[in-house]
Every structure is written in C-alpha cells, then in structure tokens.
Amino acid sequence: MFDNFPLWPQRASTMAGNVDALYIFLLIVSGMMILLIFTAVIFFSARFRHRRGVPAEQIEGSTPLELIWSVIPFVVFMVIFLWGAIVYFKGRTPPRDATEVYVVAKQWMWKLEHAEGQREINELHVPVDRDVKLIMTSQDVIHSFFVPAFRMKQDVLPGRYTVAWFRATKPGSYHLFCTQYCGTQHSGMIGNVIVMEPAQYEAWMSGGVTGPLSATGEKIFAELGCATCHRSDSQGRGPNLQGVFGRPVDLADGRTVTADENYLRECILDPGAKRVKGFQPIMPTFQGLVSEEQVNALVAYVKSLSPAGKSGAAPGPAVAVPVRAAGRAVSKGSQVQ
Amino acid sequence: MAIENPQPERVNYLNKEYGIGSWLLTTDHKRIALLYLISITFFFFIGGFFALLIRLELLTPTGDLVQADTYNKLFTMHGQVMVFFFLIPSIPAVLGNFLVPMMIGAKDLAFPRINLLSWYIYVIGGVMMLHCMATGGVDTGWTFYTPFSTAFSNTKVIEAGLAIFVAGFSSILTGLNFIVTIHRMRAPGMTWTRLPLFIWAHYATSIIQILGTPVIAITLVLVVAERALHLGIFDPKLGGDPLLFQHLFWFYSHPAVYIMILPSMGVVTEIIACFSRKRIFGYSFVALSSIAIAVFGFLVWAHHMFVAGISVYAALVFSLLSYAVAVPSAVKVFNWTATLYKGSIHYDAPMLYAFGFLGLFTIGGLTGLFLAALGVNMHVHDTYFVIAHFHYIMVGGAVMGYLGGMHFWWPKISGKLYPEGWARLAALIVFIGFNLTFFPQFILGYVGMPRRYYQYPPEFQVLNVLSTAGATILGVGYLLPMIYFLWSMRYGQPAPDNPWNAAGLEWKTASPPPTFNFDEEPVVTWEAYNYDELDAPHKEEVPVAG
Amino acid sequence: MPDSSLIHGEVQNPALLHHFAEPQQQRDAASLGMWIFLGTEVMFFGGLFCAYLIYRLKYFGDFAAASQTLNAALGAANTVVLICSSLTVVLAVWAAQHARRTMLLGSLVLTIILGFAFLGIKADEYQEKFELHHVPGASFQFQKSIPGHPDQMANPQHAQIYFALYFIMTGLHAVHMIVGIGIFIWLLYSAWRGRFTPDYYTPMEIGGLYWHFVDIIWIYLFPLLYLIDLHK
Fold first, then answer.
1. CATH of domain B29-534
2. Could you give the CA distance from residue A202 to residue A220 in angstroms, rounded to a whole number?
3. pTM, rounded to two decimals
4. Are the C-beta atoms of residues A15 and A150 closer than 8 Å to each other?
C-alpha cells in the first residue's frame, strides 16, 4: 500500500493468500459483530434514556434468546476454527520434494546453509515458485523465524529441529524478523529473504560454493570415525545407515519411531536415548564435540543415503502425517501472483 | 468550597481510630482495601512510567532514547509490575475487599487477620520487586522463557522471580478468604441466587486464584533453582525441555487473564443494572458464565504456543477449546446490551466507563477469535497484534471496569462525591486516548512488527507515532481521577448513604460505613437488583449525584 | 472493640471472633479455609509431580538408575514414621474433643518427636547423597548402569535432572514438615495452657488436617522416587 504507511503486508507466498482470506473473513465477522453491539448500545442508551415518569421495565431474561446467542456464535466459531485448522495444517506440513535449507539461529544472527552448500548470514536467497523447507535449530535460546510477507512463523528451539516451509510467489526482498525475544539485540536479529527469478538464482548459486551440505557431512562422518561402526555392509557394530532416513526404526526399549531429522540429531548427541534394537549401547555421545552446523551437515549426509532423503520428503518432525505431493498448491482463497 | 457539616460527624470506619498503627494493624476489610488502593496505585504509576518510556523510544525507528538492554528491561518490568502488582490485585483487593462482606451482609471477611497478612505479603513482594528494579532490573520479558531466563540473561532474574513468588501468595490468600466468606458468611435470606453478580464474579475469580497461582509459584521456584544451581530442568544442553517451562508458565498465566477480567465484568454488571434502573437481563446465565469462564480458562493455555513447537494435533485441541471459552464472554456482552433495552438510562461517569468497557472489551474479545484461529495465529503471534489484543482486554476492559467501579463506590468508600463533570471528561479522554494508542497496533501487528522490538523498519513509524500520541492522551486521562479523587476527600460534597439509589446491601448502610458495616444484621427478603421497588412511584426519586 | 454479639446479653465462648454469628459458623469457616489451602498445596506440588512424570517417562532408565541409589529402607522407615505420626495426630484431636489432657499432651509430644525423627532420617539421606556427589551442581558425578541393562551406562545429565527433582520435591516436603512441627509446638503450648475444650478445638482439627496432608504427599513421593524398577 503506502510505502511509508503500510496498512497491509505484501503477499509473496502461496500461504499468504490463505491466511489473508481467513483474516478478512474474521474482519468481516468482527465488523458485523461490532456494528451490531455498538448500534444496539447506542440506540438503546439513546432511546431508553431516563425520562421522568417512565420507569424501566424489569425483564428477567429469555432462555430462547440465551440459547440463540450462545449457539449461533458457537457455530460461527466452529467455522472459524475449522478454517483456521485447515490453513494451519497446510502451513505446518512441508510438501514432498521441497528444497531444504538448514537454519541455525544464534544470538543475534541467522546462519543459513543451503543443501547445495551456499552459506548465508541474515539473508536467504530462494528461487520463486519453488517449495523451500527450513530445518531450524538454535545454538542458544529460543528464537523465531518470521517472514511477514510469507505469513510464515516458526519458533526455533535449542536442542531440536523445528521445521517451516514456504513457496515464494513474487520476486523481491522481504523482511525476516526474529520474533521470540532473545536478549539484547533481539530487534537487530533481522534480515531479508530475497526471492529471485530462476535464472538469477542459478547465477547466484554458482558463485563461490563449498559443495553440497551432504558432502561436507560425508567428510565429517569420516573424520569423526563414524564409518568404523556404521558400515554400509551391515557388518559394523552400529546400524547400517543406508536407506534409514524416513523409515520406521525398532528401538531396544520396544518402541518404534520414524527416523526423521530430530531422530538423527538425537542419535548423534544422545545415543542412549533411542538405541536401535539388536545393537549394543557403545556409541559415544558427540555432544560438545560438534557444532550445530556440523550436526546439520551429518544429518544432510545420512539423508542423502536414502531415496527419501534426496529430496527431503520425510514427514515434519512433530507429526507423522502423509506429506502432500509436490506441485503448485491451489487452495481456497490463495492468490498466486 | 467549604464543607457543609451541620451534624456532628458519625463514627465510621475512617474516623473511628486515627494514627498509623490503627491502619497498619487493622483487621477491618475496608481499611485493608484502602491500604491496597494506595499500594496498587503506586505500582500503576511505576508501570505506567515504564510504558511512557517505551512509547517515547518507539517514536523513532532507531534506538536512540535508551539502550537495547535498558529497553528490554523496560518492557519486562512494565509487564511484571502491571500484571502482578497492579492488575491481579486491583479490583479484588480494593473493591472486592471493601464490598464482598458488605454485599452479602457480613461484618467482615471470614479471616480478617489473613486479609491483613495478604496485604503485607503483597507489600513484601512489592519491596523485593522495587529493589530488583532499582539495582539493575530484569530483562527476560514478563514471560521468563527458558533457557534465556535460566542460563543466558545477566539480570536479576532470581530476585524478580522471588518477588513475584511472594506476591502470588497474597493473591492466593485473598481468593481463599473470598471463597470461605461467600460460602459461610452470607446474611440470613441471602441465598446464592440473590447474590449480586459482582459476588459471583469474585467467586469465580477466587477459584482461579487458588488453583492457578500455586502453579506459577512452583514454576518460579524451578526457574530460580535452575538458575542458581545450574540445573537442567529447562535447558536442552543438560537434557531439559524449554517447552515444559512454557506449559507450566501458561497453565497459570492464561487463567490469570481471567483473574484480571472477571472482577471487572462483575463491576460492569452492577453499574449497568444501576444506571439502567433494572435487573440484569439473564441473571443466571451471567452467573454461570462467570463460572464457565473460570473452568474453561484452565483448558486453553497452549494457545500461547501454537508456533512454539507443539504438535499440530495438540494445537487443534487448544484452538477448539479456546473457542469454547469465548462463548460465555460473548453471552455476557449480549446480556449487558439486552439490559439496556427498556431501561431508564443515566449517563453518569460510572456508566460512561461501563459503556467504554462494552465497546473496548467487545473489540478485544473479537480479536481473541483472530488469535485462536490457528491459520491467523501463525502470522500474528508475537507481533503487535497480540499486544493490542491484550491491552484492549486488560486496559480497555479491566482498567475501565476498575475506574468505573471506583467512581461508582467512591461515595460509599470515602463519604464524599467526586466532581461529576471532570469525571465524565476523564472517561472520554481515557476512551479516546486508549483507542488511539492501541488500535494502530492491530495494523502494526498484521503488517509484521514483532513484539519487544526497540528499533524497527522505518515504514512502521507512522503507526508507532499515532500510538505514542494516544498514550500521552491516555496518561492525562489517568491522572485526572487521581487528582479529583484526592481533591474530593477534602473538598467534595458529603455523600448520602445511597447517592445512586442503587440496589445492594452496601447501599443500605452509611457512607462511609461503620466499622462493622451494619448497625443491625440484615435479613434479606428480596431479590437482587430490585430496582422496581427502589424506583416505585410512591417513593420520591432520590436525585442522582453530580 | 465493642462486640455487637454481646448486645443482647448472651454469654459467648471467648474464642468466638466478633465477625462470626455463632461458633459453628466459625468452625465451618476454619475447616473450609484449611481444605481450600490444602487444595492450593496440591496444585503447588502438582507442578513438580507433573515435571517429574514427564521426565520419568522420557528418561525412564536413567531415572531408575538414579532412584536405586536412594536407600529404600530408610524411605520406608520414614513412611512408617509419618503414618504413625498421623495416628498420634488423630489421637490428639480425639483427646482434645474429649477433654483428655494427658492423652492430648502426650499425643502432641509424640507427633513432634516423630516429626523430628522424619527430618533426622531425611538429613541422614541428604548427607549420604552429598557424599556420593549426587547433589546437582558443579560437583555432580554419576556412574551407574541402567537397572536390567548392565551393559548400558545411565546418562549423567538425565540422572542430574532426577536428583534436581528429588531434592526440590523432598526439600519442599521437608519445609512443609518443619512448618508442621512448628504448628504442633504451638498447639502443644496452647493445649498445655488449657485453651482447647470439647467446645473449641478448631486449631487442633485444622492443624491435624495440615499434618495429614503433608503425610499424604510423602506417601506419593516415596513410591515415585524410591521404588522405580526395584525388582531389576
């Protein structure tokens, strides 16, 4: 809208339209409600203002009226709830085959690493019209990755991965804010998401790269001696990691879990917690011996050993849900520009 | 204006004994209410001062008034002082303490000495908080999220946590006192369905106080222990879970917002009934709504955590329940509005505050629907939208109700009338100033300005400037009552026993009341809000004050 | 203060406070007040139990290992001590109700002694924990295998969480015990001064309620903290 006086954020992602549609619906419902109440109050207080000789009429109540104005709002609320739930579900379920970017938040900057290996600080370059999945963790306190133009927000926690996704629809540069208070420079922990046309993005990508993240991970895997136990011929003292990502794993304590990013991370930092059935508890912990970026690289490497991991199709960490097929999302009210 | 005092002054709770000892060692619930009034007003102005500094800083996009660390302390202490040392006690400890025994026909609360103890506990907590603020302050945000508060902040987290821990016991004891009083001390004939809705509201509030406050107490104990002893209960580096803190914290802090709003709803009910001259529409529904809000309020805490990393399914449950808790509040708004229908409406200052409440609470409550909608919450969580929402409820709602109640019962409390013209002006200034301060913040939030930011992108400046302008006006609106209430204590017209011809046992005794409230124990044979009897044609209409 | 309840010339119990109409009302109010207070205490401990429950489920093996370093025999002894003390409290309240002075004083003394016995045993346990470096903090050390899995060592960080919760929960309980002993010393003094009669023994009753509550908290703490996987 106005440049110096924005009344509405830009819409630059597929989710933005969905969120805006619900918001506008809420504005309309609220507007109607405000109109109703304000009109009634103003009208009644004028029409029934105190006049000498005209007493108030004592009305006990009206059960039918109470039921009406409990049930109707409740029904409206349920509509809002369902609509909101659908939008939320979609916003929290990354599509299959999304491009992955690993994010490490720290006081007070954003460190990003593309799966292809580019590293960025406080900036994220992405191509337009491509699903991008962010796999995020924090080195210290809780932060929150917020891009208003994408209507996307996800808290970034220390000690685990949280996941967010978006599909940018409009080239441009959009604010990135940290929106979970994290200390002195919380309001300085800002940056930009730069959405580029595919050709420009390719050009940017090819400038100065260290190699894909999974290759870095493979190097670390060798340097730390992981290969000694985790052999691909299944003769090792540790489980074979080929094809493990994205599949169910039977644990020694009887549970079965899905090997997602959080599971892989936990195995590196706290191997005893979810030991695989049939293996001895001899894996040492690497807590304190690897940085968050190195953990990301190792996770990316193990993922690359799976067909599922090659395009990041595992379910989001918090939920075991079937993932939507890739492709352009066309949903109620979305405005792809 | 000289005080006209043709009769010798009656003995009442104010003039019965003089001397600081008689106040500091009193067990009279009315005097204790005034002790609380002084203390919470003091903290209100401290919290307000921090707010002023915050809004001044936010006039410009760059951080130029204060440093980042100072700003972080300002918003933290603004929140802590306003929530724990002003809003939570406000109406219950002042108006509730004063009125609950009188409204039910009792001589005092069930436990007068515990009542005094609760004030001292509050004061001790307050002194600890002041000391903490004076010696460096705390910068964790009023929400104390871990691991920042336990392992990263360099400020006086332990002291602030302990101060709030102590103050929490004041709240618990007040709630305990009210519940026992309402159950056991009602005068003969005062059945549950004859109780004023102010009492129902305080009963519901007290339930939340006794069940919820201990949880934040133990949470603060854990935070203090973790910070002091480097434990790992909430620190992932030591095996702990930062989300556990959030669950424990919000388990209290969500019901806490109902502690802040329910009493105000009770006040508004009394005012609307009186100044419409009729019984509240749907008495039992309003009473039950208060209880429903108290119960449901305990089931929705994780709606503060939709993007915190909880599972999608948990989020669905909490969103659904949040809509459930919205229904009773909506029901109340409809009942208040319906009460106006075929009433006989007066526009005295208390009623203006009640109107203000209706408008602002409606807006605030509706924006709660926005926040409970998962799809919208993803975008507006932790932005100025949330700040606008809760200020509409807590300031536009709770504080308006508090001010309305102070005006309504001021003649009873002080025996003096406040100046009506100034009071109406103040109500108007507060309403205008409030809307100008907080409405732009809804827009700011949706365009994406995060909370707790002291510097921001330049395009957000215009909205911030509007907000600060409003805050200045709001500040004037709050200063005015301070001034004229004080003025009225010396120069105000003496108040009759019942200047509003209002229903309720408290109006059947002198203004100010005698120490034991009633010369003779009342026996109640009438329903609440018997305005038809009070306004019956054969009675000479008592002129309304002002 | 003039007492309006004397206006009509009734004789009243000196213990009746001015704002109550009759002793029954005062008794009911005191009783209800204490029950509500105990409700707040349940919520207070509840937060701790909740944290404990969550971590115990998450780190079961480590918690079992840590738990087994506690002396279950001493814990059981403490349980017996507290149950006996609840018995002496019941006897004391009965004695007050039936004006049996010797029994009243004796039961109160026994209660206090048992309370101190509990604290003494607790102090001994804490001492042992201190010596074993199981107190969370800079000098914490923990080397033990998970019960039932002799080849797997427990995670010391998770064990430290166990001990943190152990100390906070039992410590908070001990604080409540100390307050309880204080209350009972005051009750003993009042009883000795002859303050309690069959018509008025409310402080005994509500003091007793408090003591029983502290006992019940321990009855939950003991199995939760001391008896994890003892058979392994």
1. 1.20.210.10
2. 27
3. 0.92
4. yes
